[in-house]
UniProtKB/TrEMBL annotation:
Inhibited by UTP. Pfam families: AA_kinase. One of its GO terms (cellular component) is cytosol. This is Uridylate kinase. CDD domains: AAK_UMPK-PyrH-Ec (cd04254). NCBIfam families: pyrH_bact. Its EC number is 2.7.4.22. It comes from Pyruvatibacter mobilis.
Amino acid sequence: MSEPKFKRVLLKVSGEALMGEQTYGIDHKVVKRIAGEVKDALEIGVEVCLVIGGGNIFRGLKGAAEGMERASADYMGMLATVMNALAMQNGLEQEGVPTRVLSAIPMTTVCEPYIRRRAVRHMEKGRVVIFAAGTGNPFFTTDTAAALRASEMNCDALMKGTQVDGVYTADPKLDPSATRYERLGYMQVLADDLKVMDASAIALCRDNSIPIVVFNIHEKGEFGRVLQGQGRSTIVEN
Ligand code: UDP
């Protein structure tokens, strides 16, 4: 087994990744599988914290498009991420992994409020921390929350688990000649508007020199392989 390339990482998983074959909500089998990937990463000596999106339940933009006030719709989206965080905590605990959910919107009967020093302490004690409720602010996304928390936690990388194994020159499902980038610069991602994460997340990672590693979260064992510098991924860095 090779040495992990990163000591501490933040794993960002979109809400949609938890749906599995469903069109809405949470598939517990998928949650358990991702929890297993996180457990394997801990076993090779990597500290892991998590941000989970909410798009499988509610997206603020969709609510706003249907006539809701954007800020209220965004708060609903943030609440959706709390549900996903609790589901993931449950999945991790069933794997025997001690886990804490820290929410940017305090709701002390279901989880802890987000306090940076407390989060650091949990991680030092070997617990997996799940950051819920995004940044706590409307008009943001969980991608930006992931970049923010990765910066606050001094993570060595932001691992973006997606449905594909990296960033391609074109959509590989539509264009068979599309090729995967091994490496990209932050500026190229921003200038070419490559769909890696939203622009504010990319800019925050660039400012704090946090590499973004895009890989396929659905491929068994891939998270661990990518952490060891193997597997298939695209790395976004300076
Ligand atoms: N959201 C927000 N502020 C944040 C993070 C999330 O308002 O800091 C809301 C926003 O409405 C978003 C929803 O929560 O649509 C779910 O998050 P996101 O769309 O990022 O989830 P993902 O696409 O990763 O599943």
